[in-house]
Design goal:
The protein is α+β, with helices and mostly antiparallel strands and about 100 residues long. It has one domain. The strands form two sheets. Strands 3-4-5-6 form a four-stranded antiparallel beta sheet. A two-stranded antiparallel ribbon has the order 1-2. The longest helix has 18 residues. The relative contact order is 0.14. Bound molecules: zinc ion (2 copies). The site of one zinc ion (ZN) has 8 residues, from loops.
Length: about 100
Amino acid sequence: MAEKRRRRSPAAAAREREAEEKKKRTGGRHCPVCLELLPRLGGQAALRCAFCGAHAAPDRRCGKCHGDRVWEADSAAACAACGHHGSKVRVFAGQDWLTGKPPQ
Ligand SMILES: [Zn+2]
Ligand SMILES: [Zn+2]
């Protein structure tokens, strides 16, 4: 029997994984930073991740979609609205949080 394996380029596989991760990040049931399933409290997903310690940071803004559904952990951050993720500097880029200036 021939091995049943679909040939996919690494780039296509990476794109697929990205799409899969984005679905989790923006679905509201997983931590947008580490993608672990969030505990549910009273029918609502918790706004803090027990795995990586990330939590919702409504006073921050996403550098990509400018929404406020961003989460932050120690050094990483992610946006639960558009799926933007990475280091805090990257996710909150375009904001003056680094210099301590209030958002315009
Ligand atoms: Zn997490
Ligand atoms: Zn965003």
